[in-house]
Amino acid sequence: MVPLRVSITKFEWLPDDPTAFVPSMLWKLLFITTWDDSQNRSHPTDSAEEAYFITCGMDIPEPPNCVVLEELDGSILTTFLAELAPRPTASPSAVRNIVEVADKLSTDGYDGHDHLAICSLFPTIQVFSASDLLAGETFKVFFLICLADRRRIDQWIDEQLADALAAITELSSASIPYSVLCRAILDMDPAALFLALYRCLEALYAHAQAKALMTRIGLERDWVEMAETLESTLGWYPREEPSLETLLATTLSEDLRSVAAALKEPVPLDAKESSFVAKKIYNLRNALVHYRPFHWKVSTTTVDWNRLCEAMTRLVRHVHVECSA
Description:
Number of strands: 3
Strand order of the largest sheet: 1-3-2
Helix content: 40-55%
């Protein structure tokens, strides 16, 4: 699959076929059109009406509402193959039977290869368009496309978790690492998604202390800028477990107990929920990213990853809304 790279190409050389490879519309990100005096070279445009997303190896008959499934034409295929260079899945003999059947130098009347024949050599290639899309929203759309693909296959993500993940796109692209979430849902290891959601919480660890410091010294600026300044100049950054506990103290008891239940470690009656769950989440994170002897004894075989990631998604949504208020 190659859904995760965005082209910033300013121009492309297109094949010689004056019909099959002439682009049918302007591109926002790829800037493809043709010159009047040359049918096989493209020229930059400043169109901002359409953005295109191309996937390879996916099969999405019902794309998310934010995009429209488009017909694959020669110009789109040419740009995609030139930019991302995916490997064909057809056998070498099948490739030769299509690619070597004709060429410009040795074949009279050659007007280019049939783009559908070339397309058949690769995993399924699909094209989606979106209108009036901000550049910062690109990976949010990719995330929804990838999630739509995951819904159709027998992977570990169930429908309940998929719905919860789709709801997370209500949050700003500036604070959610959608590119990380994209790769996580394509991973067959559910721990990858847990770690990606943990990063969404980690992004806010400095929020409370940075805001408190600015209030104390009478500074008015974005808390993110303050946190960056503190770390780059003083080497200060928040301690992870206490910061996680501070964030979770603002969340719903139901979500905290859902995390504990998914980990098969119910919250004791005399325990503070936010502290108990913060420690369990942080311990699991450490066991997944470290391999010191202390972490060898941690087992994840009993974890209900669907319910854990669903609860983590709700925690992410809640704390991001709280911190942006």
